[in-house]
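Sequence in, structure out.
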Amino acid sequence: MTHEHNLTCQNIIENLNAYIDGEVDDVLCTEIEAHIQSCPDCRIVVTTLKKTIELCKNADSVASLPVETRHRLFAKLNLEEYDKKD
């Protein structure tokens, strides 16, 4: 039995969290990966989301930076308000 989804970019967005979390079946996973390989826009979205998740996982390491380093980092990122919360 073959499953052919002919995924659109909208389908990718709708299934993105489940895909990233490894919660889609093997067939859908293969189809999503094929779409991502052929669609630069979806590839950017997936790559950006994966990087964002990784940064969030490592957020505690930012809190352990010296205060002056954090101030410079947040200033460069234009996050002065976030930095003031410390």
